Amino acid sequence: MDSISSRIQEVTPSLTLAVTNQAKAMLARGEEVYGLAGGEPEVDTPEHIKAAAIVALQEGKTKYTASGGIPELRDALAAKFIADNNLAYDPKQICVTAGAKMACFNAILAVVEEGDEVIIPTPYWVSYPEMVKIAGGKPVLVETQESNGWKMTAEQFEAAMTPATKMVILNTPSNPTGAVYTEKELREIGEVALSEDIIILSDEIYEKLVYGDNKHVSIASLSQELYDLTITVNGFSKAYSMTGWRLGYTAAPKPLAEAIDKIQNHTVSNATTFGQYAAIAALQGDQTFISDLRDEYDVKRQFMFQRLKSIHNIRVVEPKGAFYFFIYTGQLGLKSMNLTDKLLSRYKVAAVPGVAFGYDDGIRMSYCTTLDVLNEGLTRFEQFCREH
Ligand code: PLP
């Protein structure tokens, strides 16, 4: 249709949302579905966080706030950055927004101009390339290797750079692969970014879900020079099981923070006011919810890893963070969309096709579900692999 802008015509709808919606519709019709496609913790938001939102509502915290968020929340976030990430941000450098998704979008819109190239390691989180396209930029995809734990090397990054490169997007821990970059790897990538002043968008939404001896490192904390180039994105969705609250944030050097605030001024205005009060309760309340969630996911991760390793015709690498497995399915000889369609319609298992993440020889399965669902879903997936 002529009236749709060419930028939006280029954009692909979110396949992850499409698959989860299809599975939800099947469930609503009373069909059995083993949902391994999800991207959110299955447990509810902790009670003390919900209670804080209720109190805020009762106290009339129902009006606009400063576009970057209420000062108390930005103060609490500045304290969080020091405690968790060894990063000193003035509260004014932090902008609270409607989910980490919008935080990523604001960051991209603030930096990317028509024709600018943005380097994105593949498999990538589904929305990055589409956001870049909406901003008028050009996604440059760097295919990572399973043998390297699905991580982009500094050499690959350097080879993909051109004079038009404006930004690189890093996501650690990663959705969909669960890869966690080490400090050494981030330093090497950082060196390359510094050589040409490439802005780094560091999406750290899964920072609290890192397992075993692995450690989350914020690239901005590695040097003043990297701090000056980095927009750090984070949010409440995954750590506090607050996906529906739509609460995320950016932290950036001052000029970039001001640019992001301008976008926020003229778009969303502010994140929901009573939600911001709940976010303070999340940050300042008991954090055992997070460690319990992590422990529980670690059990499921190990269970799933053992099961997947024993299935013929597929390959997996151990994910170090987040709550996903990215499974190499190239040997099954099916396009990922075809594979997940069959898996859902015939075996009642929902998974996300790798094509959604720019990698057609794989699928994503998540373990943010009950052990029972996981167990049955994997049994059916094993049967599917045997029969194909
Ligand atoms: N970044 C990554 C890597 C994600 O996986 C997600 C959600 O799935 C987001 C950002 C968006 O998070 P939010 O729900 O806070 O918008």
UniProtKB/TrEMBL annotation:
Top-level class of the enzyme under EC nomenclature: transferase
Keywords: Aminotransferase, Pyridoxal phosphate, Transferase
Gene3D superfamilies: Aspartate Aminotransferase, domain 1, Type I PLP-dependent aspartate aminotransferase-like (Major domain)
UniProt name for this protein: Aminotransferase
Cofactors that this protein relies on: pyridoxal 5'-phosphate
Single GO MF annotation: transaminase activity
EC id: 2.6.1.-
PROSITE patterns, per the entry: AA_TRANSFER_CLASS_1
InterPro entries: Aminotransferase_I/II_large (IPR004839), AspAT/PAT-like (IPR050596), NHTrfase_class1_PyrdxlP-BS (IPR004838), PyrdxlP-dep_Trfase (IPR015424), PyrdxlP-dep_Trfase_major (IPR015421), PyrdxlP-dep_Trfase_small (IPR015422)
